[in-house]
Amino acid sequence: MKKQRLDKFIANQTLLSRSIVRTGILRGNATVNGEVVRSIGEIIDADSDVITYEGSDIGFKEYVYILMNKPKGVLSAATDKSRETVVDLVPSHIKRPNLAPVGRLDKDTTGLLLITDDGVFAHNCISPKKAISKSYIATLDGDINDDMIFAFEQGVVLADGTKCRPAKLERIGENVARIIITEGKYHQIKRMFGTVGLGVNDLRREAIGGLHLPDGLNEGECIEMTKEQLEIAILNKNE
Ligand code: URA
Q1: Does residue 62 register a pLDDT over 90?
Q2: What sign for the dihedral angle of Cα 46, 51, 53, 58?
Q3: Ligand 1 atom nearest 192 alpha carbon
């Protein structure tokens, strides 16, 4: 199945156009098993041959898994007619067709966001059945108190009557709280704080299960991970 033309393979893996890749191959920018190959129609075996292009390994990957520190002002969507999306921020060397965010963060929310083209993985991460925890740091327009902590523990009822699962609320500073939920309703955290009369001025997701936003990953930056690394990290401490 994985036998195909070198130019097609590199173009698919890198999202560069076939004509750019062909020029690159003719210039000697591609190697197959360590040897420079200048024949654009070379047939390669994507399962067993080691291919590089412009010095980067272009190994066959069925899916890609990207961890992003989402910045403010960017839409959690694959595409949009006029607004910048999180997928627009993915660097070209890891970009692929069909990438989409795993769940959504609001436009003004920052922090940990996964992006993948593996729909099954994405579904499992956000499925309410899996109850994977999501931890956020919220800066509020007032302070939390013990009654609110208790109400969140019991599961608050949103203004439209929706009952939320029990959530863990912790005061970590003046007007700053950590909140851990195991579901992902629309604007959930803002609506939950709304039920106790508090507004959310700033919201950052710091963790999904045991997977934390890595230190040093600035807003707008991404790293590629394997599915196994993500699954281990997420399930490791699903508090
Ligand atoms: N809850 C919200 O209100 N917004 C988010 O972006 C995520 C959770």
Answers
A1: no
A2: positive
A3: 3
Residue 64 CA to ligand 1 center (angstroms) comes to: 25
CATH code of domain 133-208: 3.30.70.1560
**pLDDT above 90 (res 13):** no
**In this structure, what token pair is assigned to residue 121?**
């993985």
pTM score > 0.90 for this model?
Answer: no
65-128+211-234 has which fold?
A: Alpha-Beta Plaits (3.30.70)
Q: Count Cβ atoms below 10 Å from residue 135 Cβ, excluding itself.
A: 23
Residues with catalytic roles: 106
**91 CA to middle of ligand 1, Å?**
25
Q: How far is the CA of 132 from the centre of ligand 1 (A)?
A: 15
**How far is it, in rounded angstroms, from Cα 127 to Cα 31?**
42
Interatomic CA distance for residues 47 and 2, integer angstroms? 6
Around 113, how many Cα atoms within 13 Å sit in the side-chain half-sphere? 34
Structural contact between residues 50 and 32, judged by C-beta atoms closer than 8 angstroms: yes
Which residues have C-beta atoms less than 6 Å from ligand 1? 105-106, 109, 187-190, 203
Q: What is the pLDDT of residues 107-131, one digit of tens each?
A: 999 999 999 999 999 999 998 888 9
